[in-house]
């Protein structure tokens, strides 16, 4: 049985993550296209994705607090990254109830 893990990343308002592929999992997990599931909490992020490690060729999407991104199957090896964190975009109620500091919390679940 392969272990499931959760990677926790916190991006401050000036946080970034260059385009990369997730390749740390077992060869079997990657070859089967087992999904990566990512939860966004806090400030909105500009998320890049594409078939190549070229930011100019990548597409982007805004990931807001509460958004879930899943990439698996044919999309499992997509290049992806974060180019911007948009300050003061987190839901006010989230900040008031949790004392989350400014930025974006990302929880990424994978199977190794």
- Using only CA atoms, what is the Rg? 15 Å
Morphology call: globular
Strand order of the largest sheet: 1-8-3-6
User: On the 0-100 scale, what is the average pLDDT?
Assistant: 90
**pLDDT < 50 runs, ≥5 residues:** none
Class computed from helices, strands and strand pairing: mainly beta
N-to-C terminal Cα separation, in Å? Answer: 9 Å
Order of helices and strands: EEHEEEEEHE
GO molecular function, one term: oxidative RNA demethylase activity
Binding site for Fe cation: 20, 22, 80
Protein name: Fe2OG dioxygenase domain-containing protein
Domain Fe2OG dioxygenase: 2-112
Q: Can you describe what's shown?
A:
With 112 residues, the protein is mainly β. It has one domain (4-111): Alpha-ketoglutarate-dependent dioxygenase AlkB-like (Jelly Rolls, Sandwich), CATH 2.60.120.590. It has 2 helices and 8 strands. The protein has a 4-stranded antiparallel beta sheet, with no helix packed on it. A 4-stranded antiparallel beta sheet has the order 2-7-4-5, with no helix packed on it. The protein starts with a strand and ends with a strand. The model has no long low-confidence stretch (mean pLDDT 90). Residues 2-112 form the Fe2OG dioxygenase domain. Fe cation binds at residues 20, 22, 80. One of its GO terms (biological process) is oxidative RNA demethylation.
